[in-house]
Fold this protein.
Amino acid sequence: MKRSFPLSRRSVLATGASALGAASLGLSPRLAQAQTAVNFQLSWLHSTQFAGSYIAQDRGLWTERGLSVSLQPGGPNAPVEPPVVSGSALMGISAADYTAAAVSEGAPFKIIGVAMQNNPFAIASLSANPVNQPSDMEGMRIGMALANTPVLQALCTINDVDFDAIEIVPTQYSPQPLVAGEVDCLLCWATDLPVAMTVQGVDNTTMLMADHGYAVHSQTYIVTEDSLANRREEIVALMAGEVAGWAAYREDTAAATDLTLAMYPDAGLDRETQLLQAERQVPLMFSDLTDANGFGWWTDQTVAANIETLGLLGRDVSADLWDRSILEEVHSV
């Protein structure tokens, strides 16, 4: 029987690039006297990918800090960078490679937090013919967007794999080509196509590229240098709410999933899929490093690894792209 897979929230890769009540969560609404309205630009459509932010909004973690936050969804026609550059959004969620590209064109961005400690890019395969390590791809057909060729090349370079021994097959962003035997593996996010296959009962294997040296910070928080200098108090408050929201998410991903579905009932989200995505996101976002220093943290060593990988992607950046001062203030309280 042919399986039908829904179009993923990450389908943009194929081309390149009401609320749950506080009482039901056992919470007490908390209000602040003065509220400053700010826009927070998300990187994609609403889903559990941003559930920590939904918790912050639902629990009043921003209102108690004097902010009225509007969460703006992203998508294929809603890039993150323009509203942040223009000042219509105080902060946005991006990724180090996208930010590096924007900075190379003159955008005055700083990365002030790293939500995903491990990059979500993965190689998905069927467990009957698994890709467990990069060298397993030699002789295989990989389904992917041609625009992600530099990503695959970087992975091969890092792991001394013969890139020319891998056949790239341009595919739509769906598990179907793999399930149908048209390709042997897929380049995708670990939290979407493998999840879709698992929910459909397809036995699959996920090789996280971050486990094999592909170091690019993802789901990063970006602001402009001007905002960092002149709207610092608001940025600190916004990040403090994020930190608290994601801590609550980690404690109960099922509750975070239910909140997402309740806040966005018209988003077409499937609970089983969202639950599994929420669970699989946890090890990408939390680590020994965040346990020791706090959510969103990075070190000079992780930045150096990012700079090296970004160089393989053709993005030359320096360490001053990252500014940890906001997190230092948030986590020092």
Observations:
- The mean pLDDT is 91.
- Residues 118 and 284 are 5 Å apart (CA to CA).
